[in-house]
Design goal:
The protein is an alpha+beta fold. The chain is 48% helix and 15% strand. The chain has helices at residues 16-33, 37-43, 49-56, 76-89, 96-110, 113-125, 239-275, 287-315, 321-346, 356-364, 374-384, and strands spanning 130-133, 149-153, 156-166, 174-180, 189-195, 201-206, 218-228, 232-233, 277-278, 281-282.
């Protein structure tokens, strides 16, 4: 079927070794992930060995230093390739990008040498699966409303509270939990590494979602969980600062996945309208289909170029929070429009679950919500323009 390589603007950010890596990664997703996706959707989570197989091939935490077992290549393009091939040939509910690029960087960036030696090797092999717990039943984007608390007691911190909508919530062996460490300071938050099996750490039911059925999203409960001080990341009151630091990277990762999903849906649909006939000709030959796809082609190329540029800037740590927010906003809004148009072009088939476009449509809906909703992205971009409501007071 048509692929990014032969239609659309040629992407210029990859070198020969990236292309070689992509071939390896593509085969992995075609052989080891894609064939199991349907069974994983039915059981509500991927098999743990999805992670260990990816780890064995060196696809997890490619940025991590060789002393921990990583490739030691701090180049987001390799992670971008993994994410793109998973979107195309794997399963979007397999949250390999969350593991490697949303959670693990906290361990790599904030961890002490002792913590990195203790945790990173098994994250790299895939034996340890990661999650991060920020959102609460009462507090999503408004992190100042966080109610989960951590209180110092001897050599431990005692954690109480609950988190919800936590990706990898059932499978995770290590969960980075944000908890309030100060009663008085609004932004006094710490990041704590909670390990599976710690007393008082319970997982609620796996939550039923509109899409991404193989992604084990859960509520997590903490009742007097004693977390050793050795499991605190960084300083106990700097959590907000750390989260802000890491969010730009997270938003680029979300943008990468969104534009890859849009590109995949476009390709599927182009194939479909080329083969499917109505009134004696392929439906793609009708002006409506042709113009719709032409419009989307132009937009996908445009957003892909912008996201690629953000990846390059993130590599040199020059990416601004506003540009990351723009990428996340543009890519996820485009993904939504592409999915809607592609379902329409599939006609009745687009509404049937056996057609991939149907599943992609529901999978895509959360993209404009997680990692900061579209509204929050606009808020960040707007504040960057100096248009900040808070300055009125």
């Amino acid at each position: 079927s048509s692929s990014m390589a032969d239609i659309g603007m040629k992407r210029s950010i990859f070198d020969a070794e990236h292309d070689q890596f992509r071939d390896t990664v593509r085969r992995f997703f075609q052989n080891e992930i894609g064939p199991y996706a349907e069974r994983w959707r039915e059981q509500g989570h991927v098999d743990r060995e999805a992670y260990t197989k990816a780890g064995a091939l060196g696809l997890l935490l490619t940025w991590a230093d060789e002393q921990y077992g990583g490739a030691g290549v701090n180049d987001l393009r390799y992670e971008q390739i993994v994410s793109e091939e998973n979107m195309r040939h794997g399963d979007p509910g397999f949250y390999i990008h969350l593991h490697s690029n949303l959670v693990a960087p906290y361990l790599g960036g904030l961890g002490t040498e002792e913590q990195k030696q203790r945790w990173l090797p098994k994250c790299i092999t895939g034996e340890t699966i990661l999650a991060i717990a920020l959102t609460e039943p009462h507090a999503g984007s408004d992190m100042a409303a966080m109610r989960t608390t951590a209180v110092e007691d001897g050599d431990d911190w005692v954690l109480n509270g609950s988190k919800t909508y936590i990706s990898n919530g059932q499978l995770a062996d290590l969960v980075i939990v944000a908890a309030r460490t100060s009663k008085t300071e609004r932004h006094g938050v710490g990041l704590f590494v909670v390990e599976a099996g710690m007393e008082g750490f319970e997982r609620g039911q796996k939550l039923k979602k509109m899409g991404l059925e193989s992604q084990d999203t859960s509520e997590l409960l903490f009742e007097n969980v004693r977390v050793p001080k050795a499991n605190l990341l960084g300083e106990s009151n700097r959590g907000f600062h750390y989260l802000t630091d890491f969010l730009a990277g997270e938003r680029v990762v979300a943008a990468i996945a969104a534009v890859a999903a849009a590109q995949t849906a476009f390709d599927l649909t182009l194939d479909y309208v080329t083969e499917r006939r109505a009134f004696g000709r392929p439906i793609g030959m009708f002006q409506n289909a042709r113009f719709n796809l032409a419009r989307l082609r132009a937009e996908i190329d445009c957003v892909q170029c912008f996201v690629d540029q953000c990846v390059i800037q993130q590599n040199s740590r020059a990416l601004s929070p506003e540009a990351a927010a723009s990428a996340k906003y543009l890519a996820t809004e485009l993904e939504g429009r592409v999915m809607d148009a592609c379902v329409q072009l599939h006609g009745g088939a687009g509404y049937m679950k056996e057609y991939r476009i149907c599943r992609m449509y529901t999978d895509a809906r959360v993209s404009r919500i997680f990692a900061g909703s579209s509204e929050i992205m606009l808020e960040i971009i707007g504040r960057g323009l100096g248009l900040d409501e808070r300055k009125l007071h």
